[in-house]
Amino acid sequence: MRFNLLRGGVLGLLLSAFLFSCANKEDEPITKPDDNRFTAVTLTEGMDEPMEMTFLPGDKILFVERKGGVKIFDQNTKEVTLVATIPVNTKYTNKEGFTREAEEGLMGVIAHPDYEKNHWIYMYYADPVDTKHVLARWELRGNELVESSKKIVLEIPTQREECCHTGGGMVFDQEGNLFLTVGNNTVNPRSGTSNLDDRPGQENNDDQRAPGNTNDLRGKILRIHPEDDGSYTIPEGNLFPQGTEKTRPEIYTMGHRNPWRPTLDSKTGYLYWGEVGPDASTDSIWGPKGYDEFNQAKGPGFFGWPYFIGDNFPYVEHDFDTDTYGKPFDVNKPVNNSRNNTGLTELPTPVVPAMIYYPYGVSEVFPELGSSGRSATGGPVFRKADFAKDAPFVFPAYYEGKWLIVDFMRGWIYAVSMDENGDMTGMERFLPEYTFSSAIDMDFGPDGALYILEYGSAWFRGNANSRIVKIEFNKGNRKPNVAAQADKIAGAVPLTVNFDSEGTNDFDDYDQGKLTYSWSITSDSGFNQTMQGANPTFNFQEPGHYVATLSVTDTKGESNFTEIRITAGNEPPKVSIDFGDQNRSFWFGDKQMSYDIQVLDEEDGSTANGGIKPEEIAVTFDYVPAGFDPIEIASKQSGAETVAILNLGRNLIESSDCKSCHQYDTTSIGPSYTAVANKYPNTEQNTNYLIDKIINGGSGVWGDHGMSAHPSLSKADAKRMVDYILSMDETQATVNSLPLKGQIKPEVPAGENAGGSFLLRASYSDKGSGSIEPLSGVDYVALKEPFVDPQTSVDRNGVQLLTTPSINFMVQGDGSYFALEGIDLTGVSAIDVLASITSRNGALGGAVEVRLDSPEGQVLGTSESIGRKEGGGFRPPEGMTFVEWRRQQANRAKVVIQATSGLHDLYFIFKNPSAKSGETIMTVTEIEFIK
After folding, report:
1. pLDDT tens sequence across 213-231
2. Which of 568, 584, 606 is at the close of a domain?
3. Where would I find the PKD domain in this sequence (predicted)?
4. Partner of 418 at 20 to 30 A CA spacing, among 411, 619, 680, 905?
């Protein structure tokens, strides 16, 4: 069963190490354990868009993938088994007929609490035909999903014209009630704020239609009781009693934008989840900037969206017919007056504020959460009573009642402490030396370990770095921490790969220098070879997919391992964007910029020799607002990439004899390709059927004329041809691919500030080689405005960041420094450090030195020493933005630099020999790069 059944509450940190938890007299003292008592173990890698996991008996993990894969990982055998592939929809098609990749697909899974008796699992997915999301139950017998056992429990009508937000997280409570998170299924407005457009034809832009609608299941967390016959009943205590006019009784909480992974506290019954907020990076006329949230429901309630966010910050009434603004929404009397509202006008009160909320920048309330992209996932509440006494990895009593939360984008885990009423009292970083990037689900397993399901780094594709990681707590001997690298993970054979284990260690003193290293190279075809030593080299002679497993064993016999996947037999393509002498980091206001794209592939040839054709390469250019939803951007780009890949099939058709019998739109000797696409839906079964027809020939389907066989055509090439044909009746991508050589014209869209980036991206998926599937190559240029926030810096020394009453990035003491990573200096003549040095902040002033790549690196230039400069008031004059005013008022340390090209890390070192440690030299507000 999914082991987050009900958890929560809190025990505070006790000062005495002699006090024990009341849960069990044998518990260890309630003191914080050393971080090195926790070991991260990678269980499996290389999944295809994993979404959610649930635990099964026998140390098995059932997980689902967005495109429909249902898989089981067995911790004993280390094997992943494909149980079934559920037909699902994975595309949006807008009113103009353009197609893009969708967030939806197979979105969630959970095992019934009585799984050992009934073998029931529940999955939440996008119906492959009808515009609806479906909650259904199946029986899972061993590794067989019994199709005849399927029972549709609940259906939710949706729109699939526009992105985004699906939810799909599930959890059972102790009474057998099932909680299901449902996303708002609404457009992300370019303003990055709330969706309130209720004009006819704009229904997908109106969150009042769903999250703010008491009569709609979207933008909600539902609570139902699944019955044995596949139906469900409504438990007592939901938000609206059954029979209440203009309401849905399934609703437990409402007013959600994109709630993700829910959990329940087994002691209090409180519900917890992460919720992804809108993208606005600043407050505006529409209302507050965007916040992600971690929420707690002590009972049913209204959580504010689309009228309020964060600590109930109100949005502003907006009449889209006249494009005028009214007053902020009233948190004491929220009303839904939308023309699209089918529910109650007066919404429930009180409006429940978020427990934790944070913007893209540093939060003044929760500064420890940092600044960057954000995507609140959720996580479990730890209760020791939830686990068997002999569970081997149960966390210590220190974490009793704490809520462990993870953010998909930021990669941290925080432990949130609460008092006996469930009110937050504080939080601290859990394992700060680890980064848990792209965590899409996190839960405790029956063995007491914390399991993290990581989606991987790129949207809408399988990722080699997707994985399941579990965090084990070790009271005694600690397992080794294993790290492994390879200098190549793909290439033509013979392929020589150098492996190394740098970063591997063990925290037990008696194991120092005594670890043993064993590498095994295996493949699905039965290849198995073992090498000893920390840093071996291996030569792959035969094409295939290999797994290199490094196992490290300590003196007590405890082992840990990690894997690297190697593809031998196909050299990855090299894609390069020649940007000339133009800067690849910053946009300096140029009206147009030139580019030239080249692709080289060992097997396919190149763009230069014609082996790779322009239409087989996806080239996109777009403006990306600051912090804008990465899923939205990836969705648009993936459409162009899909068209480019399909063009490989079209070009194979053009170079074959197929056109002697078939035309694209008109009937010839044989049917047109359009007719074939209309006759055969794009399914795996039809694809395999047509591949066989192309290779082996046949007759009798379209008339008496037989179709010639093509026995010399590879199955892979035949599949590319079929993929193209079956896509012909589908709509086209929302973004057209650009030519390989030309000019881009950067223009900030109306209504946007210049805080975003321009993204030029080129992608090529090669034709594969023999039995080895295609590999992709990508290059991109991301151009942002030439002002950099010092909060994005790394490797800081002598830096203090204060967040109240305002954000102050202070450098203190002579020789203090920070670094900016990966900056292109091509064409940059000077760097201005914009600072505040006033009597109010007590700064002393000083000079700034810029060095390349390290604090001791080459000196690029040094500014003159700047002293105090008192400010010119607290508000900008009318008609001037605060940012413009701040830049005008700033004290500037100008560093004229030597001509330098290429990407470098830049170290900013602050000089004032009279400044003692802890004395502020200046407060840095921005860094400007000058062409």
Report:
1. 999 999 999 999 999 999 9
2. 568
3. 480-568
4. 411
